[in-house]
Design brief:
The structure is a single chain. By secondary structure, this protein is α/β, with parallel strands linked by helices. It has a domain of 70 residues. It contains 13 helices and 21 strands. The strands form 6 sheets. A 6-stranded mixed β-sheet has the order 13-12-16-17-18-20. The chain has a 4-stranded parallel β-sheet with strand order 2-1-4-10. A 4-stranded mixed β-sheet has the order 8-9-7-19, with no helix packed on it. Strand 8 and strand 9 form a beta hairpin. The N terminus and C terminus are likely disordered.
């Protein structure tokens, strides 16, 4: 029988205060473990006007001379590096640079700058500003990455050199070309399995003290990829060895500024925003077997039926209105999900709600509105602040630096111009097994507490490959459902408010411990005392 004595009540209050105090301490620790501005290097080129303007807007006029001189910057404490200061001329054309030139003109100057300023361990993220190249081309087969059939044969039987500048920089300290080591860029290999993929912890919970140690590469013939294996743990690639490389880019500087601005103080309205998960010819069931669905094909390591798994994850979480989950498994033009802002001639299913996640087959949808309007589906939606783009299209990160789309596929740049805030795209043919997993974007960013850079890289299966991550890497999202006291700020006061008056956060009809745990889990980013933030 419960005691109602004063001593029992006092004991309960003391226990509650202790629990909440520990939560607050853990939250502060978690905040310290997520990516910080002092760990971000903003890279620009003062010879490129757009690059200067974006760098100045993001890092501030005090750090980036040569612009208007009036920009306060978006974050305090960012580091900057002007590629022009290295004295190496760029040979990039239409956003592409050959591999050897990328080494000389980008990799080596950035390495030298970090070493000269004792930043090799301090920097965990690189931001590339508009105007810098986004594609690394294969000098022996120029442009082959734009030809899916040819590139597939090349990848299977030869050396796949094509990559994005961004993804190659994620392994800045590793010497990967065949001329430097004879293993990785060899026959039947093309990408490296990302060790940060499918993780849930902030990047600073992983040590990076061996980031400069050469790794012991091992080829995986079945996946035509590489990983590491060694009895020496220093030679094994870990999440801490991966630099989180993001891009502030778009069709115009104005698009970039608007994109970054939308990412600040980001709060998702859980009663108003929706999700578009438009698959094609799927059975609609989260089934990890190889069933020919594009989100569940080829490499067994990447099979996860991503569209269905993302749907189920968001619905089971319960915080977002389930009526605004727009998942479609069917093919045919009548089943093509699109927004109200482009006239598609009356075909398809119109989603009018503002959306926060666009995960779509696009041009790959069996039955689409056809050219030329199919590539406008991403611009047709009403986009909520913080909207994320991640589609099943091989060239959806191609259209930067003046390049057009390929095969009329949707583009991150178009999405940003239409009011989007974040995106992951591919600059050359990536193959289906390396397309980003939306469930990890949802788990770690939309539902969780990681920064955009961290969440994006937990969604990417491969590095040294084709991906570009677009958006403010330091952005973090909160949700209106988690603001228990209604003050517009999500902090420890919401935990106190919940204990006083429990709230049904997950929409199951009761306010109970499940809601409490949901609140705690999103407030307190998972931490583990193995981190090494590197030199400050």
């Amino acid at each position: 029988m419960r005691s109602n004595s004063p001593s029992h009540a006092a004991s309960f209050v003391v226990s509650l205060v202790c629990v909440l105090t520990l939560m607050a301490i853990s939250a502060k620790q978690a905040g310290a473990n997520t990516l910080r501005p002092t760990q971000v290097l903003v890279v620009y080129d003062s010879r490129i006007a757009d690059s200067v303007e974006v760098a100045e807007f993001y890092a501030g006029s005090a750090l980036v001379p040569g612009g208007s001189g009036t920009e306060p910057g978006v974050h305090e404490g960012l580091r900057v590096f002007d590629l022009a200061s290295a004295g190496v001329a760029s040979t990039a054309v239409n956003g592409a640079v050959f591999y050897d030139d990328w080494i000389a003109q980008y990799r080596e100057p950035i390495r030298a700058h970090l070493l000269a300023n004792d930043l090799d361990l301090a920097i965990r993220c690189i931001v590339l500003c508009k105007g810098l190249p986004h594609r690394i081309d294969d000098i022996t087969n120029p442009g082959i990455g734009d030809q899916p059939g040819d590139f597939s044969a090349h990848w299977i039987g030869s050396r796949a050199i094509s990559a994005s500048v961004d993804s190659e920089l994620s392994l800045l300290w590793q010497d990967l070309p065949e001329g430097e080591i004879d293993l990785f860029r060899d026959v039947d290999r093309g990408y490296i399995q990302n060790p940060y993929w499918r993780q849930t912890r902030p990047i600073n919970t992983y040590t990076n003290k061996e980031v400069r140690t050469p790794k012991a590469w091992v080829g995986i013939q079945a996946g035509r990829s590489a990983t590491t294996a060694s009895d020496d743990p220093r030679e094994v690639l870990t999440p801490g060895d991966v630099l989180l490389v993001c891009r502030l880019d778009g069709h115009s500087v104005a698009d970039v500024r608007a994109m970054v601005t939308r990412a600040q103080n980001l709060v998702y309205d859980t009663d108003a925003v929706g999700f578009v998960l438009d698959e094609s010819a799927s059975n609609g069931i989260a089934d990890p077997t190889n069933n020919a669905e594009l989100d569940n094909i080829m490499d067994i390591l990447s099979r996860d039926d991503d569209y269905e798994t993302t749907r189920d994850l968001i619905l089971s979480d319960g915080r977002f209105d389930p009526a605004r989950m727009f998942y479609n498994a069917d093919s045919g033009v009548t089943q093509f999900l699109l927004g109200p802002n482009v006239d598609f001639g009356g075909v398809g299913i119109v989603v009018a709600d503002p959306i926060v996640l666009l995960t779509h087959y696009g041009r790959n949808h069996a039955g689409n509105p056809g050219t030329p309007i199919v590539n406008q589906y991403d611009e047709s939606f009403n986009l909520a602040p913080g909207a994320v783009f991640s589609t099943m299209e091989s060239y959806n990160g191609r259209a930067f630096n003046g390049l057009p789309t390929r095969f009329n596929q949707g583009q991150v740049a178009d999405f940003i111009g239409a009011g989007g805030t974040f995106g992951i795209g591919m600059v050359w043919e990536p193959f289906a097994q390396t397309v980003p997993d939306s469930q990890w974007i949802a788990r770690n960013f939309i539902l969780g507490g990681l920064t955009w850079a961290e969440a994006a890289y937990t969604a990417i299966p491969a590095v040294s490959w084709m991906h570009v991550v677009v958006g403010d890497p330091l952005a973090r999202a909160t949700r209106t459902s988690d603001d228990i006291n209604g003050d517009g700020v999500f902090d420890v006061e919401d935990l106190y408010a919940f204990e006083k008056t429990p709230v049904d956060i997950n929409r199951d009809g009761v306010a109970d411990n499940a809601d409490r745990q949901l609140l705690i889990s999103t407030f307190r980013v998972p931490i583990q005392e193995t981190g090494d933030a590197g030199r400050r």
